[in-house]
Design goal:
- This protein is mostly helical and 165 residues long.
- The protein has one domain.
- Helices cover 67% and strands 0% of the residues.
- It contains six helices and no strands.
- α1 packs across α3.
- The radius of gyration is 21 Å and the shape is elongated.
- The two termini are 22 Å apart.
Amino acid sequence: MTGHELMHVYNRDILVSSVAAAVAGFLTTISQYFMFFGMMGGGRSNNQGGGNPLVLVGGLLAMLLMPMAASLIQMAISRTREYDADADGSELSGDPLALASALRKLDGGIARQPLREEPKHDAHAHMMIANPFGPKAKQMFSTHPPMDERIARLEQMAGGQAPQD
C-alpha cells in the first residue's frame, strides 16, 4: 500500500485533482452566470416584458447540467488516478499480488464491518483507500474504482498481461 500512496505523490495526483476541482468550480460559476443572465432578460436593454424564454431555459439547463458534468469528470479523473497509482505502485514494489492481497483484506474488513453511514462522513470517502461506508455509492459517483476491478487489474499485471481498459 505504501507504493500505491507514494505513486500518488510521484504522479502529482493532488495537483491533478486540484486542477479538476478548479475546472469544476469554473463550470459551476459559468452555469450560475447563465442562469442569472437568463433571469435578467437575456441581454435586453429595454424594460418591456420578461427575459427571453429560450435564454432562460438554456440558463436553467446550464445551471443544472454543468455542475453535474463537472462532478462526473472530476470523479472519473480520480478513479483513473487510482488505477495509475495501483499500476505504478505495483511496479515500484515489484509485486502486484501483494497490493492485490492488501486490497482484498481491506475490502473484506469493510464488508464485515462498514462504518455507520452518516451524511457528514460521505464527504470524507475520497480520502480513504476504500469506501468504508458500505456499498451505498454507485460506481459512476464513486471517487475510487470498485475494489474487485482493481484487484483483477493487479492480478493481470502479475500474470504478465496488460490491464484491460
